[in-house]
Design brief:
Rossmann fold; 5 helices; globular; binds NADP nicotinamide-adenine-dinucleotide phosphate
Length: 142
């Protein structure tokens, strides 16, 4: 087997970013496995572990997220479950199986008051439930 060929798991693959990756993947030499919560619910730790035991995965791109920014203000439990705890489970499993995890941040981790463009090292200061849960998730991922 060609060792340069990689198998890339995409979680939350039915969403906006996942759909873009699906389009790109059609021209890729690599093998993509697209999953959404029905195939791989990232809030279920054992489900992730079982999936990793049954598939050989080289990289994970996590597109799963609770992205309803306004709704999250009244639904912080579910936003936290997915954006924070789900990422904790996924990051932990990736670490255990030595699989690099690519996770996506958001402008909502910043407070929007900067007059210069944000960079990865800019000071975070989320102003919403969505931004807070996303920040906590990416801190676990880091
Ligand atoms: N789109 C943007 O403009 C934008 C900008 C900045 C950052 N981002 C970041 O990019 C990433 C992807 O965002 P997106 O816009 O593609 O989000 P999205 O369209 O809301 O897609 C998220 C996907 O995750 C699925 N999902 C929900 N619960 C799940 C679970 N427990 N396990 C696995 N999958 C689950 C959703 O399914 P259901 O729809 O059925 O719930 C949906 O298909 C997120 O981290 C987001 O914060 C996006």
């Amino acid at each position: 087997m060609d060792k340069t060929m990689k198998t890339i798991l995409v979680t939350g693959g039915n969403g906006q970013l996942g759909s873009e990756l699906l389009a790109i993947s059609k021209n890729s030499p690599h093998t993509f496995i697209f999953t959404d919560y029905l195939e791989l619910d990232i809030t279920k730790e054992k489900t992730i572990t079982t999936f990793f035991e049954n598939h050989t995965i080289d990289y994970v791109i996590n597109c799963a997220a609770y992205t309803a920014v306004d709704k999250a203000e009244e639904d912080s439990l579910n936003a936290t479950l997915l954006n924070t705890q789900g990422i904790q489970f996924l990051a932990h499993a990736c670490s255990s199986f030595s699989i690099p995890l690519i996770h996506i941040s958001t402008d909502y981790v910043f407070d929007g008051k900067s007059h210069i463009p944000y960079v990865e090292t800019s000071l975070v200061n989320p102003q919403s439930v969505y931004g807070t849960t996303k920040l906590q998730g990416e801190q676990y991922a880091l």
